[in-house]
Structure formats: C-alpha cells, structure tokens
Amino acid sequence: MTSSIARTVQGISKEEQAKVQGLNGLERLCRVYGSAEYLEKKMRDWSDDLFFLELWDELQYRARNKGYGGGNIARDLSVADVAERTSSNVGSAEESGALFDETAGAYRRLRVRTEEIIQEHLNDIKESLRLYGRISSWASIHTDMLASASFSISTELDNPLQKLTSYLAFLKKVLGHASLRRISRQLALSIQTFIWDHSIAPHNFSTTGITQLRRDMETLWAVFDRFTGDGQGRLGMRKLSNALDLIGAPIKASDSKDGSEELDSASKDRSLSIWEIERKVYKSNESAREVLEQLGLDSLTESDARTLLGKRVELAS
C-alpha cells in the first residue's frame, strides 16, 4: 500500500517510494516525531530558565510602555511582530506567557500532525487483514476440532501478525511509553472496526467458528500486550472482546432452549449458558442490561446483544 507520505509527493521514483513505505517510512516519521517532541520540551524548559525569564520580563516591560498605539518595541518590530515570534501574551496585562510559546506551539503542532500521519501509516496493517476479512466459514461445525480442543491460528492472520509485531517492536524502541500507548490504542481501535465490519457483522458463528475467531484475536491481543503492557490488546478492542465473550457463551447439556426457569440470585455464582443469556436479553431492556452487567459486558448495548446472539447458529437450530 502506498503510504500517506508517498501520496503527498508527486512523481517520485519506485526507489524513493520504497523509502517511505513499511518500516522505512515509519522510521522517517518517528525521526520527525522525536525531534518535534524533544524541541517542544526544550522550548518549554528554556522558557523557565532564569536568563530567558529576564528577557521575557524586559520584553513585557517594553511592550507595555512603548507598544500601545502602534509603537515599536525594537527597531522596526511592532508588538504584533514580536508576539508572532514569541507569545501572544506580549504586551497584555496577564502574567501568563513565556518567551518561546509560539516556537513550542509550532513544534507541538508538528508533533501532533506527525502522530496522525504515523497512525495513517499503520493502516497498512488493516490492509493486510483483507484476506482474513474474506473468511466465510465461521458458521461451519467441525466436531473433530471440538473434540481435540486444538485450534491453530488462521493462516490468513500470519502476515498481519508479522507486520504488527515488527511495527510495535520498532515503535517501542523509539517512542516514549505514553506516545506508544496512545498510538497503539488508535491502531487497536482501527483493527477492531475492521474485524467488526468484515468478520462479525456479515457472518453467523458456530461453536467452532467463534472459538477459532477468539483464538485468532487472543493471539493478536498478545502481540499488543508484549509491547505495550499486559491487557492492553483486549482493552484497546474492548467492544470486540465483549462481543466474542457473548457470542461464545457456553452451551450446557443440562440447559434446554424452551426452559422457563428464571435466573435467581444463586445463578449469579455460576457461569450462564447462552440459552439463559438469550432469555434474559430478549425478555426486556432492563433484563438485558442486568445480564450484560452481570457478565461484565459494559461495551455492548441491549441492541448489540440481541444482534450478536442472533449470529449464534445453535440458537437458531
């Protein structure tokens, strides 16, 4: 996929284009990001330095005493000219402001914009998920797989996992913890949207299908956890995690679809079967909210729950 950098440059060669794609492009972006972040902090630090504080006080004194009425502060520099280069608070009665406000602000805008481009650049991970999004066998029932309880990762996920691992490994080396968390969280949300739109929304799921999808997603979350901290993968895709837990609720042999028993307080001490959950969710909105809260599925609405339960093929049989 042509990166966001390449799209902004017209007429570049294939060799030059390769330099702004993949890890090469990410490295270039991170150099700009790191420099902007460092210089923004340095400008803030300089503003608190005694030498520059004295310069700021002198500048404010001149602006307040000579700048009114269009007078210049120094030579041909008006108050507006100086404010444009230093701080918008030049000449004001406020005690806020510092000598390098405008410069620090410029570096901050560069840092923010570069972070946005990094996030756009990481979208090629989502592009690599296209093949995974074409899997349509989620509703198939494979009793042999259930018997063996052995689920390998879908082969269509191999390339996205490799790309995600290489990107996050690099970002961990060059970014601070807060920046890494912020960027990875946006990436996780982007992947969640893709999986929801291409794997969950269009398809129904058997027990084996939902188990396979959950196995795949847990592997994906493990990559995020490895580089950004325990639990960060699942946290970044919380709605997807909640959806998998709901669709993948267990089917118990002792439960029947047409059972009429109501859930009582004692039932909260055990896991619920998907039949029990279905009865509660469809009973009323209040009942649905209660069972979602009981299950800890706080990212799903009552409508989400009903739609997701309708995708479990065993409930429709």
Q: How would you describe what is shown here?
A:
- By secondary structure, the protein is mostly helical.
- Helices cover 66% and strands 2% of the residues.
- The chain has helices spanning 4-8, 14-18, 22-47, 50-66, 79-85, 101-121, 123-128, 130-133, 143-148, 158-174, 177-200, 207-228, 232-236, 238-247, 274-283, 285-295, 302-309, 313-316, and strands at 72-74, 77-78.
- The protein has a two-stranded antiparallel sheet.
Set down the secondary structure blueprint.
Elements (H helix, E strand, L loop, with lengths): L3 H5 L5 H5 L3 H26 L2 H17 L5 E3 L2 E2 H7 L15 H21 L1 H6 L1 H4 L9 H6 L9 H17 L2 H24 L6 H22 L3 H5 L1 H10 L26 H10 L1 H11 L6 H8 L3 H4 L1
Antiparallel strand pairs: 1-2
Helix pairs in contact: 3-6, 3-10, 10-12, 12-14, 15-16, 15-17
List keywords for this structure.
single chain, mainly alpha
The Rg value, from CA coordinates, equals 28 Å
Which structural class do the helices and strands define?
Answer: mainly alpha
Major sheet size, sense and barrel closure: 2 strands, antiparallel
* Fraction of helical residues: 55-70%
The strands making up the biggest β-sheet line up spatially as 1-2
Oligomer: single chain
Give the total of beta strands. Answer: 2
H/E element order = HHHHEEHHHHHHHHHHHHHH
Q: Pick out the low-confidence regions.
A: 1-12, 253-270
Percent range for β-strand residues: under 5%
Shape: elongated
The N- to C-terminal Cα distance equals 43 Å
Helical segment count: 18
Mean pLDDT: 82
